[in-house]
User: Fold this.
Amino acid sequence: MNTPRKLAAGNWKMNGFRADLQEARNLASDFADPSVDIVLCPPATLVGAMAAALVGSGVRVGGQDCHVKPAGAHTGDISAAMLADAGARYVIVGHSERRADHGETSAIVAQKATAAQSAGLVAIICVGETEAERDAGKTLEVVIQQLVASLPETAQASNTVVAYEPVWAIGTGRTPTRDQIAQVHDSLRDHLPDGAISLLYGGSVKPSNAAEIFAIPNVDGALVGGASLKADDFSAIIAALAQA
Ligand code: PGA
Assistant:
């Protein structure tokens, strides 16, 4: 049976200028471990330049969002095909910040994932509960509903990664307990159509907690925000994943 690949994905969000490409180069020279796939998702303005800067390294580039259509009259949007053309191999879809800031429903996220797959990209599909949903005891119900509705029928390990990101853990320094992560990841795993789809945890992953998180069953890697902006921190997280 195929097992999931280990993956460390860095989400730069709306951070990063051309000068910051040096961090990506540093990461690439710091780290080359064939057991771990590494992706950096810079803002769209840097996708092409970063892909060029990382040619020949083991680090791949991803977008942070894509439109559901391949082209057309959609001012300000970019398509999955354009990301692929610029050198991206992955794209994040359904991040909670997109769901909250842009009203993206799981149905839209599924269309975006399909668009990504059609363009030859791997879709990193994000799900996660809010703090109020967790407090109400609805975590599993919410994340499974999101997963089922966000996952296209075409999803398989070669074109899909799933990231569990509790909204209350993103950028807050707070993380769920080991048991809370294990419970959600076990349940997500049971609902995935392909056992080799990588399942990432995201939300305040940093060098100091990475090893503990990667030791949890069914955690195949991480989607990292803040700590991916510094090559040293992201390298330490990748090293922890390689050793897990
Ligand atoms: P964080 O962000 O690591 O800064 O908490 C994670 C994410 O939003 O993907």
Observations:
- The mean pLDDT is 96.
- The radius of gyration is 16 Å.
- Residues 11, 165, 170-171, 202-205, 223-227 surround 2-phosphoglycolic acid (CB under 6 Å).
